Amino acid sequence: MKRVRSQRPDLGLTVSATTRMPRPEDVDGETYHFLSDEDFAARIKRGEFLEWADVHGHKYGTLKSEVDQRIADGKSVILEIDVQGAFNVRQVYPDAVLIFIEPPSMSVLEERLRGRGTEDEDSIELRLSNARDEMELAPRYDARVVNDDLSQATEDLARLLDLYETNGGNSQNGSY
Questions:
Q1: Where are the alpha helices (DSSP H) in the chain?
Q2: How far apart are CA 31 and CA 40, in angstroms?
Q3: Which of 55, 90, 158, 161 has a CA-to-CA distance to 142 between 20 and 30 Å?
């Protein structure tokens, strides 16, 4: 997403909210809006989320205000969310375009998770289990991009975004 946004600063990328603890490299309000469990629950009750879900043992969600502001600014909005959230957004915005970013294989995903050094063994196993379930839902998306080579995946995603913005993706086969 960072690479595509550097090419397309006009995209309205939202900042998700989460109840997970910040990692050392995280910046509140840029990486995520880090919320306590109580604050997250209160915002759910007030209807402040477009979508939210329990993922990997923590809550994640997209604040409606994040989306509304970008739409008001005349930007195409891009959400970096899991499959639960994507399908919830599709219910609210039936014309939303869903693009699934997938690893080249489960073994590569496991390698990447372990290589980050930010997760304990239980968390890695949970993420891998969730990824298997999510990958089964990929055919329900409008398009898919395999994140094997970062430069190629960036180019593929940017091309899909351009295609869907200009003609709704009608001439696209849906996979890269």
A1: 2-7, 37-45, 64-72, 83-92, 106-116, 121-137, 150-167
A2: 17
A3: 55
The structure tokens listed for 50 are: 């477009």
pTM over 0.85? The answer is no
The first and second tokens of residue 28, run together, are: 């509140």
Lookup: tokens for 119: 């997760």
Q: pLDDT tens for residues 109-153? A: 999 999 998 889 998 999 999 999 999 999 999 999 999 999 999
List C-alpha distances in Å: 98 to 41, 82, 86, 138. 27, 11, 7, 9
Write out the DSSP string of 72-100: HTTPPEE----HHHHHHHHHH-TTPPPEE
